[in-house]
Amino acid sequence: MPSLLERMDGRIEVATSGCWEWQGARTKAGYGQIHCDGKAMYVHRIVAALVFKQELKRKDVILHLCDNPCCCNPVHLRIGTQRENIYDAVAKGRLDFVHLEQRPRGAAHPAYKGSNWSRRIVRRCKGVVSSYFLADIFSVGQTTIRRWAKE
Ligand SMILES: [Zn+2]
């Protein structure tokens, strides 16, 4: 049984804009959805909860800095209640929105641990969240996180 993240990993296409566009089900408003334990969940909220390591409350608004509702690139997301974090990093130019490489179509998906997707998150989040925090999310050591960040 693949984990939720493994299931998500296969359904994200990186657009030339840098957006991680959800290829699975979408709501009418365009938000990506995935089923988890029989419940439909918003993909961008799952990614935000993972990256910001914060259980999201119903009132927590996830904003798309890119105005692309199907996008779940963590650096394009901001929790309304946590503005000082990613948003300020973007404003200060510490994060760039350079184009990411296209995900090869039809390529076999590597195991979640160490997949391009997890490495991409680590590289994007460098300097915004701690390596301790990222190591915890991806269940690898901080040395591995630092290595990924340099790739
Ligand atoms: Zn985006």
What are the main properties of this structure?
binds zinc ion; two-stranded antiparallel sheet; alpha+beta; 6 strands; 151 residues; globular
Textual characterization of the structure:
The chain is of the alpha+beta class and 151 residues long. It has one domain. Helix content is 32%, strand content 13%. The chain has six helices and six strands, in the order αββββαββαααα. The protein has helices spanning 4-9, 43-52, 86-91, 116-125, 131-138, 142-150, and strands at residues 12-14, 20-22, 33-36, 39-42, 62-64, 77-79. A hairpin with a 2-residue loop joins strand 3 and strand 4. The chain binds zinc ion. Zinc ion is lined by residues 19, 66, 68, 71, 73, 76.
